[in-house]
Amino acid sequence: MSLEPEWYSTIYGMMTIVGAVLTTLAFAILWVSFMSTRAPIAGMLTTRHVHHLGNLLMAFTILWAYMAFSQFLIIWSGNLPEDSMWHLRRLGSGWNVIALILIVGHFFVPFLLLLSRRRKRLVRSLARVAAGILVMRLVDLFWLIIPAFAGAQVTFHWLYLAAPAAIGGIWLAVFFRDLKGHPLLPLHDARFVDGQSIYLH
Asked: Which of 100, 102, 117, 147 registers the highest number of CB atoms within 10 A of its CB?
C-alpha cells in the first residue's frame, strides 16, 4: 500500500499478517520435516504434532483465501474508481493469468490436498504441500508489488528472483547462526523424558 498511497485497504493490511503466518507455518513444517530423522527431534516428533501443524496450515490457507475474496468482492460491488484501479492494474493482460495461478495454486490445490487426514499426518507429504505454499507466497508478493511499477504489462527481470534469493539467504544464515546457540527441545519440560516425547504416536 505504501507503493500506491492513493489506495488503502484494512483487509489487505491484515492479509499481510495472515500471509506472514502462513509463510512461517510452511517454513516450520519444512524444518520439522528436515529434522524428523535427526536427533533430538526424531525421538520427540509424533503424528499428533504433524497433524496439528497440518490443521494450522489448512486454517490459514482458508483464512488467506477468505480475506482475499472478501476484499475483492467489496471493491467490485462498490465500484469506486480510487479502489477499483488497484485491481484493474492486477487483472490486465498477463496479470489475470497470475491471479488465476494464485486462486488455484495458493488456495484450491493446498485446500484439497490438506483435506486428507492421512496427508496431514505424514511429515513428508505435508512438507511437499508446505513447499508449494512457499512458492505461491512468492507469486503472491510478485502480484501485489510489481504492478505498482510495471502497470498493466507483465514484466520479468532477473532481480525478481535474485532479490528474494538474496534476502532469503541472509535470513536463513541468521536463522541457522542463532539456532546453534539454543536447545532444540525445551529444557526441564515434564512432557519429555530423556529427550523422548511421552505422547504416543
From this structure: 147
